[in-house]
Amino acid sequence: MSDRAPAVTPSRTAAVIPAAGRGVRLGPGAPKALRALGGTPMLVHAVRAMAASRAVSLVVVVAPPDGAAEVRALLDDHPLSGHDRAEVLVVPGGGTRQESVRLGLAALPADVTTVLVHDAARPLVPVDTVDAVITAVREGAPAVVPALPLADTVKQVEPRTGAAEGEPELVTGTPERALLRAVQTPQGFDRRTLDAAHEKFADSAGEGATDDAGMVERLGAPVVLVPGHEEAFKVTRPLDLVLAEAVLARRRANDGF
Ligand code: C5P
């Protein structure tokens, strides 16, 4: 029997930011995460949004497979402010979002027990949303997702196989809108649960999983939603850039810049 005090179990929260997408829907140009918003690359906004949470002590950025050095240099050019003391690592990503997240998780040290996965393409998520997700994980939920009710009604269709772009599609159903939610990031996880999901469900052919919480559902573990935020929208199409610039301009005006 040892008379030493029991070892304190170390516990850290880290954020993985998949930023390896090409962003083709945004139009031609640099990879999406490197495009500027308010003069600052989208990825830098996303890193700052994670580091703004006092709970987050490590941010792992998953860069395009051949772009890790460029992303490292970009982040070094835009250091975090004095309040945000998170460490920032950069690792090369893969061909799908799922693969990129898996590579980010593989870079986490052993003492990380809570992990956030956050799209670089959601640069403006407010810190209160980040903190709400972390709190729910720390209170025992294995997977936590910020979500909002839908504005649009959603139709289910017969998948169009081989039909020309723009051809009419046959509607097969209309899910009740009140039962649907649009999910955002950061999604928060008990680290072991997310690791287990990525181990069990290897990246399949095609797009892979576009949502980490969906992989945890397949594992059979409960996933819960917390309120999302309208400013956590994903910058996907050109009009989203206009909206993002407007949100930044409003923040600057409110901050008295
Ligand atoms: O393509 P989508 O908008 O779903 O991408 C969501 C996030 O996943 C983006 O931040 C994108 O950079 C990232 N991603 C990635 N690796 C890929 C594809 C997408 O890290 N191969």
TrEMBL record:
Site entry (Positions MEP for the nucleophilic attack), positions: 177, 234
Gene: ispD
Enzyme class: transferase
The keyword Nucleotidyltransferase is annotated on this UniProt entry: yes
Superkingdom of the source species: Bacteria
Site (Transition state stabilizer) residue list: 25, 32
Protein's recorded name: 2-C-methyl-D-erythritol 4-phosphate cytidylyltransferase
Keywords of this entry: Isoprene biosynthesis, Nucleotidyltransferase, Transferase
Function recorded in the entry: Catalyzes the formation of 4-diphosphocytidyl-2-C-methyl-D-erythritol from CTP and 2-C-methyl-D-erythritol 4-phosphate (MEP).
Organism per entry: Streptomyces klenkii
GO biological process, one term: isopentenyl diphosphate biosynthetic process, methylerythritol 4-phosphate pathway
A Pfam entry, by short name: IspD
GO molecular function per UniProt: 2-C-methyl-D-erythritol 4-phosphate cytidylyltransferase activity
HAMAP family: IspD
Catalytic activity annotation: 2-C-methyl-D-erythritol 4-phosphate + CTP + H(+) = 4-CDP-2-C-methyl-D-erythritol + diphosphate
Entry EC no(s): 2.7.7.60
Family, per entry: Belongs to the IspD/TarI cytidylyltransferase family. IspD subfamily.
Pathway listed: Isoprenoid biosynthesis; isopentenyl diphosphate biosynthesis via DXP pathway; isopentenyl diphosphate from 1-deoxy-D-xylulose 5-phosphate: step 2/6
SUPFAM superfamilies: Nucleotide-diphospho-sugar transferases (SSF53448)
